[in-house]
Amino acid sequence: MGRPPCCDNNGGAGVKKGPWTPEEDIVLVSYIQQHGPGNWRSVPENTGLMRCSKSCRLRWTNYLRPGIKRGNFTPHEEGIIIHLQALLGNKWAAIASYLPQRTDNDIKNYWNTHLKKKVKRLQQQTDPADRSSFQHQTTTAANAAAETTSSNYYNPGNNIDPTMQAAMAYPNTTCNAAPATMAVSKLFQSWMAKVPSPAATDYKAMVAMHEFQDDRQTVAAVSAINGDKSSSSEMVVGRREAGTTTTFSLLENWLLDDMAPGQAAMDGIMEFSAGCYADPIMF
DNA sequence: AAAACACGCAACCGCTATTTG
DNA sequence: TCAAATAGCGGTTGCGTGTTT
Length: 283
Known about the structure:
There is one protein chain. The chain is an all-alpha fold. The protein folds into 2 domains: 17-64, Orthogonal Bundle (Arc Repressor Mutant, subunit A); 124-278, no CATH class. It is built from 14 helices and no strands. The protein has helices at 22-35, 42-47, 53-64, 75-88, 92-96, 104-125, 128-145, 162-169, 177-194, 203-209, 215-225, 233-241, 249-256, 263-278. Helix 4 crosses helix 9 (177-194), helix 6 (104-125) crosses helix 8 and helix 10 (203-209) crosses helix 12 (233-241). It starts with 21 loop residues before the first helix and ends in a 5-residue tail after the last helix. Mean pLDDT is 56; it is low at 1-11 and 133-283. It binds a DNA duplex through helix 3 and helix 6.
């Protein structure tokens, strides 16, 4: 019954671990050049590499894959990572999908070694009164959301982006999920409110928009917006059939636009985002 | 000069969702 | 239909290197 066992289950006998050698890299790359990535189970079998399939896949996706940019994160990339981390939490694969040249592992490492501290520093530099006020308002809004009660939890007294505030108010990543989910939900709900009603075929996307209770759905929806063909392909198809792709152009511009001072798109989203948060009627 | 410490990153581990036979 | 394996993800670890004492 089931699949035949792979190299992983060979009792671990003869499976090499630790850093890859240049020779192993060459073997792996030349095999993938001939056969393409995927079907990782067959890679060790056909190449003679004494590595498990999992290790081969990881080495390819995180290091050998063409087009990977390593190190030297630009301020723009940093901004995107910080922003998306505040929105999505530690969903590195989802964040990496917006930075095609970066791997999720690279982004995760960069966050853990640089950006987390940076955000923390910014947090400490922020007026504690503002922070506790925002934290209180965020919690209140979270509770109120369950009753579809409006709440103005954006603190208009400072000029800090609300999603950055969320990151500051919840430095512990495990606590980021709630405000992050809310932030995305509110952002999309306001988007939906500002555009004509979608066609009936957009049903699945609409359902997803209103089901942001858990991060997985948030990521699925965001992936759909980005045209991700994986888990949310049905939603993408539904939305594209309905011809509503342009609905999210502002968000897409902000997330994907890599032009040097591409601040226009970024400013747009910031402005729009702040406006949404500040609008007590909308929320 | 050398030991101690801090940092960055590649790779591993454990888990879940999906796929396969 | 279901058990077992794969693929993929996020958290964590361990090692090499740089910096400080």
